[in-house]
Amino acid sequence: MRSCAILFSLLVCALFSTNCTQIGPPGGGPDRVLNWRPTPIPQAQPGSLSTSTLVRKINLKPDMVAKGTYGRKVVRPMNPRYITIHSTQNFSADASKHALALKRGALRAPKRKGFNRIGFLIWHFTVDSRVAIQHMPCNEQGEHADFNGPGNNYSIGIEMCENRGGNRTATIERAAMLTAYLMKRYNIPLRNVVPHYHWPRHGCSPEHKNCPWFLMDNGRPGAKWRWFQGKVNYYYRSLQ
After folding, report:
1. Model confidence over 122-141: pLDDT tens digits?
2. What is the C-alpha separation between 150 and 216, in angstroms, rounded?
3. Distance between CA atoms of 125 and 135, rounded to whole angstroms?
4. C-alpha closest to that of 164 among 69, 84, 88
5. Spans in the chain with pLDDT lower than 50
6. 3-class SS at 56?
7. pTM for the whole thing?
8. Residue 61 in 3-state DSSP?
9. How far apart are CA 160 and CA 174, in angstroms?
10. 115-131 residues labelled b (16+ CB within 10 A) or e (exposed)
């Protein structure tokens, strides 16, 4: 029970943090940051990839928070126009542990006017190096970006895991594939694939969150983010 409490505490701190500081292991010791650099993107061959093949590569698994509970306690319909990319800043949990935390209502957030609307955090997908787990339907608003702003009201939220033992390159690749699939399914243009940084959080300091931090340059979108968009576009253009 104590280890679960520590895990959930770390998750809350990591996901609701206003400054995206890294979360170390429960013991408080140093952790190894995975080495990662952008890799060359091949030329896309339009029509070379079927949707079914891409879904198999993504390894997409539904594990929904029950409707009417916790993050889905209040269901707000959504017509998705954007896809927002996050990183968990949590070395202690993979996608399945995040799914468990969401289903148990462990990820609470202060509910007050102008901030979190339901008292819980929730997003649509969590991706790690092995699997992508869906937590809620894409036609429902989450609580992952900017409180009552357009990031929550109109965007699908994807969290990339940073758990120990995971592979960052594989996680980024899976997130890019999932993003391309969602773009195709919901007719979302590449320009509307944005980092969490894109959505200002009025009343917070800093207003723009350095997230996903390993795809930012000096805390804001730059060459690494453009590389990620290129990776997404490669899969999108490859789809039949």
Report:
1. 999 999 999 999 999 999 99
2. 21
3. 6
4. 88
5. 1-34
6. helix
7. 0.85
8. strand
9. 9
10. bbbbbbbbbbbbbbbbb
